[in-house]
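User: Please predict the structure of the protein below. I'd like the answer in structure-token form so I can feed it into my own downstream comparison script.

Assistant: Understood. Taking the following sequence of 480 residues as input:
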Amino acid sequence: MNYLACDLGAESGRLMLGRLRRGRLSLEEVHRFANVPLQVKGSMHWNIDALWTELKKGLRKAGALKVPIASIGTDSWGLDYVLFDENEEIIEPTFHYRDARTARGVENVKGRIDWADLFGETGIQFMPINTIYQLAAESPERLKQAHRLLMIGDAFNFFLSGVAKSEESLASTSAIYNPQTRDWSAKVIKALRLPTGVFTEIVPSGTKLGGLGSEFRSLKDVQVIASCSHDTGAAVAAVPAGRRSWAYISSGTWSLMGVETAKPVLTDLCRELNFTNEIGYNHSVRLLKNIVGLWIVQECRREWARQGRDYDYATLTKKAAEAPPLGPLISPADPRFLAPGEMPKRIADYCVETGQMPPDGIGETIRCALESLALQYRKTLRELERLTGSKIKQLHIVGGGSQNRLLNQFTANATGVPVLAGPTEATAIGNVLVQAITMGELKSLREARQLVRRSFEIETFEPRETERWDEAAERFGKLK
């Protein structure tokens, strides 16, 4: 069968065609488009109309292929949402999670629900960009006007099918979902005085929503499926893991690092270490931590491009590989590295503040970022072992960041465990796999992961120079 995956990322979107043939899965890019946030009077918004226009272009291209397509599903980043009025029109703007309003939302939530109670209810780590803090920053006028709230991926499934549902993996990122009741948290909604009617029914990953709208006549009989609508949930479904004890990193702008568990971990230690419990396929739990990821490198590249030094990522990585090893380090978890703009200066300032010689030039700056990120992975892996009481023996890195072979090797060195890198297109693959299970072509997630191992190249990186990295980890642990 053939399947369409609409994969919406924070920097770009694409429509991918997945083909299952003779025990192999292949992917073909049908249409790719930029996702460019809007800057309006100092506020950041998403251009939902532009994304929908581009997706429709992609669907017309898919229809022109003249191949039978069984289904389509959308996955997206988490946290953000679209508000609709009673006429199903979007209430503008659709805010970006990096909009400064979230700071106000954090203060509003603090005054209404205790942090320990909030974690015990939702199992979600503290991040000021979480949905709960965005909603707490909303104006009463907008909330009063709102008839429905849908997370980004769910909104696009609604555009495609006309059926409004909240898919579980995406809802679970909001800090308004209770992983024990598998429903919206009445306690949180009441504490924040949110309108209960805006929250739609939560459905499991792999729920059929209905047929594709009549606007797409060339794609008749195509089912719209709420796959794993959260991109991390989709990516983890595509991890080509076997039975061995393993962890994963879904690597891109963000690095989502964690393990799969059967039940949420809601302990005090989990809260103190700031881990999160998100839902995956078949109600599994993704016990993970959000790490700032390759955002730091991306922002460095953007800053240098503004200065007239426009290097591609391959060139930046080459320069980093040629720079001296294990020099100055930063803590990627420092809040200053979340904000856009002037990233090389932020790195240099941090080094000066922590008594280190700042990196000299482009190569050293990128190497500093990559080595620091690998050491953050090491710290997170050790914390996961504490939380689960289980030794992690393999680390799978999937997503676009798995193409960075230098970071993969640094990660193996830092963690001391083999790193298995690939597949790159994990979110689209996982989206397709869940659709294929729903449509009956695959029997289970285990079979789906075996299919990934057969279909895509997986590169292994063995640990090297572990003693030097152990010494660097001691320095890293002392950083503020």
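That's the full token string. The mean pLDDT is 96.
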